[in-house]
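Tutorial handout. Part one gives the primary structure; part two gives the three-dimensional structure as tokens.
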Amino acid sequence: MKINWDEHEELKAEGIALSRRFAFGQEMSCLKVVADQSGDLGLPQHWHENEQWVVVIEGSIRFVCDGTEYELNAGDVAYIPARQRHTATFVGEQGAVLLEFSAPPRLDLAPGSIIPSSMKYD
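Part two.
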């Protein structure tokens, strides 16, 4: 099945200049994130029960996982194990487009969902 991202509702991102669209299946979900401009994301470190894969399609981002900072550029992939503390910190000069795959699916992100956020903060 082909996903047409333009047919998916844009999700709000509080305080952050990002466009996010969400698709999910029975066993995993995918969040497409587009950051059109460079800058600090201001996202707090968090964790969740879902394992996560991040694939950078365009541009670059910096993120921290278990205390180690990484620069991810177009074509790079990051794996974040379940319950691992992490955050995205900065979008590079060219902006960024990335896909975040989560298993089990992040159903809390589905439009109209009444499921509480899966993100935990210390």
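Part three, for discussion. The chain has a mean pLDDT of 94. Residues 20-109 form a domain with the Jelly Rolls fold (CATH 2.60.120.10).
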